[in-house]
Design a protein that fits this description.
Rossmann fold; 8-stranded mixed β-sheet; about 15% strand; globular
Length: about 325
């Protein structure tokens, strides 16, 4: 990784994820160029990043060994893509979740960078084979899917294109580790990647339980936040199985596998997430957290503060 120090990482897209990625890379001491095709958006992003870094420094939650001012000195904004890509060794795309938009971005980027530049997308659900279908050299392409908000939640899913070189996966893994993220490697592409496949399974069963009148929306959220989520903040489902039986996972499977299979057979069809059930669940959650921007913003700020505290505790 020492070969990348002092070189440039270009972030394409200055929205929430783009700003977060810029902050993560800055925390590792890398030069970051942030680009947006809308005039003034990238410079506005720098103002927002400055505000956040200074607040984090004041709260003693700033990542990395550099001060907020030192990190900001490594950051520049650009409205011209070619200028933004000059000197780049790693390009992190963060435009909105639209396949054609991402394909267009990577075709433009490929024409402006050298062959050794790694092209990375932040997509949360689009398949690498589709995102990079218009790229000529697909061996250097990779998905680096962060979890929102990336600055506080360290996981990054690294998903290869079928033609991605293993050295590219190795490099991305090293880079993400170096900037303090927690990368995981998927060995092949799959719809939804790993995180969203697990998340959607939880969402689907939670929705079914509320929809069928088994439990309230408030209480199913407590099942996660005060139950499963407590241990899942530190250990995952496989380790949970291993620790939840006196003699480890083999003992767990012998004790509980039949019960697991029995319960799984009772799961209903994939919910529609619409109609009467959606209206009822929306009404219920909105009674505790109104859907206007003031309440949602306050709740998101609370979430981020709690994640900051959890991140500090985990460290």
């Amino acid at each position: 990784m020492s070969s990348l120090k002092g070189k440039t990482i270009t972030v394409v897209g200055s929205g929430l994820i783009g700003r977060s990625w810029a902050m993560v890379f800055l925390s590792g001491g890398y030069k970051v160029k942030i680009y947006d095709n809308k005039a003034g958006q990238a410079s506005a992003a720098i103002a927002e990043i400055k505000k956040q870094l200074e607040e984090l420094q004041q709260a003693r939650m700033l990542r990395g060994n550099l001060s907020a001012a030192e990190q900001l000195s490594l950051l520049s904004s650009h409205d011209d893509l070619q200028q933004a890509l000059e000197g780049a060794y790693f390009v992190q795309e963060c435009v909105f979740e639209d396949l054609e938009a991402k394909q267009t971005v990577f075709q433009e980027v490929e024409n402006l960078v050298k062959e050794n530049v790694i092209l990375s997308s932040s997509t949360s659900c689009l398949m690498p084979s589709n995102v990079f279908s218009g790229v000529k050299n697909q061996t250097r392409c990779i998905i680096s899917h962060p979890v929102n908000p990336p600055y506080y939640v360290r996981l990054v899913e690294l998903v290869p294109h079928p033609k991605t070189h293993e050295t590219v996966m190795d490099f991305a893994y090293s880079l993400m580790t170096d900037v303090g993220q927690a990368p995981v490697r998927l060995r092949k592409e799959i719809d939804g990647f790993a995180l969203n496949r697990v998340q959607y399974a939880i969402i689907a069963e939670s929705w079914r339980l509320v929809q069928d009148g088994v439990i309230s929306a408030k209480d199913i959220d407590l099942v996660m936040s005060e139950g499963l989520g407590m241990r899942y903040a530190f250990i995952g489902p496989i380790e949970t199985m291993h620790l939840n039986a006196p003699e480890g996972i083999e003992d767990y499977l012998q004790r509980y596998s039949e019960g697991i299979k029995r319960v799984l057979t009772t799961f209903g069809p994939v919910p529609e997430f619409s109609g009467e059930a959606a209206a009822r669940i929306t009404k219920e959650i909105s009674e505790s957290i109104p859907g206007d921007q003031e309440h949602l913003t306050a709740r998101r700020e609370r979430r981020d503060q709690l994640l900051m505290g959890l991140a500090k505790l985990k460290k």
